[in-house]
Amino acid sequence: MAFALQRWHVVNSGILSNSNRFIVVATISTVATCALLQSQGMSQEVALDSETLRQKGKTLYSQQCADCHGVQGEGVEDAHELPLVGDDSVLQLTEYIDASMPEGEPELCAGTDAKAVAAFMHYDFYSEAAQVRRRPPRIAVTRLTANQLRQSLSDLFIWFDGGSLVPDPKLKFGVEAEYFNADNWSSKKRKLERIDPGIDFDFGRADPVQGVNAKEFSIAWEAGLLAKETGRYELVVDSTCSFIFYFGDNDREFINNYVQSGDQTEFRRSIVLTAGRVYPFRIRFRQRKRKTEIPPAKISFRWVPPGGMESVIPTENLLVGRVPSSYALQAELPPDDRSYGYERGIAVSRDWDASTTEAALEFAEIAYDELWQDYRRRNRGKAEGRDLLAMFLQELVEVAIRQPLTDEQKDRYIDRQLAAEPDDALAMKRVCLVALKSAGFLYPTADNTSSQSQRVANRLALVLFDSLPSDRWLRRAAE
What we know:
Elements: H1 2-11, H2 18-64, H3 66-69, H4 90-100, H5 112-126, H6 128-134, H7 146-159, E1 172-173, E2 175-180, E3 190-196, E4 200-204, E5 217-226, E6 231-239, E7 242-247, E8 253-257, E9 266-273, E10 278-287, E11 297-304, E12 311-312, E13 318-320, H8 350-378, H9 386-400, H10 407-420, H11 424-436, H12 439-442, H13 452-465, H14 472-478
Antiparallel strand pairs: 1-13, 2-3, 2-5, 4-11, 5-10, 5-13, 6-9, 6-11, 7-8, 7-10, 11-12
Helix pairs in contact: 1-2, 2-5, 4-5, 5-6, 8-11, 9-10, 9-11, 10-11, 13-14
């Protein structure tokens, strides 16, 4: 480097003529070349001396040390069982060996011999660098983390409802409310539509709003519940009147108190929700007409978030707008968060294998109960018998494994499973088990056979959303 800097300075100084510049440059280059060759020669000599020293140390080690410490320093039972590994330098090892090894007879390995043994040990197995050299490189493919598995199954579900990975910018905070002057939510009796900041009302025996009779009325609330933390939530509806609470889908009953029983007013149910996702819900509340005195009308929608206290759900967690049906995996997954000391998406244990099996079976049930029934209604007439089921399953599997199915894959994932099981629900479980336990789903970066565009889409979805590319615009771009 010094020669190079000097060359640049002399040539660019403007003092020398062209011919003199050539002579100076040639001279400096020659000197630099000689110095380089000389340094290379010295390095080769040093390397040769080091190799010779280590070979001598290897011989001495095998003669005087291996019986107690093992051929590779791995330790010997009933002698010195601990392996010879550490962070001492060659000089420190030399001093220790010279002073105390072999045990009881240190004079047998002293001076140059001790240095040779230390050099061999340090290079071959003692140092961290030696340990790294001894571990052969291997290819490791990362699997879905627990959060990525939850997000991926949620987005696989949303695919069939036309949902998007990108939140709707038109969403507003609050709850959409409709007030009816009847106990049957009849559109003809609707008196008021507005956005309520939340659901926490004590109407008593007064009219809830102008034009709605306190003795007979109904209210419909609808919104999306935003979970800001993954974990188990307890959802609470405290109501003196009858109600039905739907959660996750407009037809998925979560709590049903349509026919009141006794004096119970508080209803609780827990569910695991995933951070960042919005879950649609609706509450149908009614004060029915009675011959006896009506009870005071009161209702409150509360929650107990993970690690939190019970409270009315804040407005910032309630969203009004187009919220697609959603699904939250309830199966318990082993922890794999590196911040808590677990390997992130690398370790594959029996617990992980069992939990992914449970997740696949859980998803198969909701896929059959909701996704397939809705798909069949929307696509009636497009195919007959099990051909329509095969169409549905092919779409599901292609989204799950992040690529179009080849003929061989279609046969493995779908055709064989349908042929093996005449019951549609059980056949769907077989398909979901094969697909959602496959490398195509659980190992998103093992996609070497996919097109470059598809691989880019897979990485984008994984990095941006911790999920699979289930957004229609992203899939169209990949195609």
